[in-house]
UniProtKB/TrEMBL annotation:
It holds the Pfam family GHL10. Keywords: Signal. It comes from Streptomyces rameus. The lineage of its organism: Bacteria, Bacillati, Actinomycetota, Actinomycetes, Kitasatosporales. The keyword Signal applies. It comes from the Bacteria. This is Family 10 glycosylhydrolase. Residues 1-25 form the signal peptide.
Amino acid sequence: MGRMSRRVFALAALSTLVTAPGAVAADTGGPAREVAGAGRAPRTTAEMRGVWIATVGNRDWPSRPGRTAAEQRKELIAHLDRAVRHRLNTVILQVRPTADALWPSPYEPWSEYLTGTQGRNPGWDPLGTAVTEAHARGLRLHAWFNPYRIANHTDPGRLAAAHPARRHPTWAVPYGGRLYYNPGLPEVRAFVQRAMLDAVARYPLDAVHFDDYFYPYPVAGQTFDDDDAYDRHGGAFPSRAAWRRDNIDTLVREMAAGIRRVRPGTRFGISPFGVWRNATTDARGSDTRAGVETYDDLYADTRTWVREHWIDYLAPQLYWHIGNAGADYAELVAWWARVAKGTKTQLYIGEALYRAGAAGQPSAWRDPVELSRHLTLAAGYPQVRGHVFFAAKDVAADRIGAMARVAADHYRGPAEPPR
């Protein structure tokens, strides 16, 4: 996911912390009862307790490219064992970070983040090993795919010789210093689904997981060049924006159907940027002033995906502190709970563990209790079925003990993930 440190938002940070809300009438979608204090027993026997393991740029794992297969396996096992020690129950492993693969894919090259050279066989099967070892520890394994990102540069010549983007150069669009597959081409959509479903067919994955990248985040002064695709395929739509949203909606619906067809019982979840739309843009939106809105900027209608139950779960990245002026964690938990209320889509909350104790963060993130307060607040919303923490390296470092505090306050015993 990258993640929020690379985003530019029109947000003003506040250091003020607010307490968990009190009782609110159930028909508002707010808390159904007074929130208990930290240290309470878990309110349910089933909740998501997840951690992302990012491989793009060797963010979390492997620690660097080129380590031996044995060293990489040892590092992976350490992340799994650490998740167990913190009484987590799910790992979300990034297995297709840049149109490549952490398994022996017939469609795309081996990831450069394993060996340092895209296409070079690492001598082992990371995804197959991760599934086996996670399940042996009682952990669920969600395979995390990025559908459209090709590279964190714009030079096709740096890709493996047999890379699909080199064989089909018209599929690729350079934008913002990166290279992307064009979501507006039906042949691209069909290809990326085949590539991802190959992993679903090979391994007993508990879920398929997408992150927040659909159309790329906007870059000032640059245009995503999909004119030809729009001319060919966009005629039935009132605007380019509507056509782009339909492209992403179609990917989501088709991928969900493909997963059900290839491996019934494997779930499908998405972790989008946390703001669908600001209320100043759309009365149905959240009381926020975020500089990015997924509906308008990434062409991802995340609210509809939940309301229509196109996916099994949504884990919005609510990477702000309680009381943030532009995007208050408390406001967004309440908003997403209202969206999920009455639907069959499960709601988990993406948590910014990486901010806790990090340099340059607002004062709220220097408090080791901030993250625990998030879980206390969210416990008042029955629609919230758990949390996912970004990311594994930060669980290991736990700079100010924020993750240890979460485990002590909220994860005193084990819990099964929701089904």
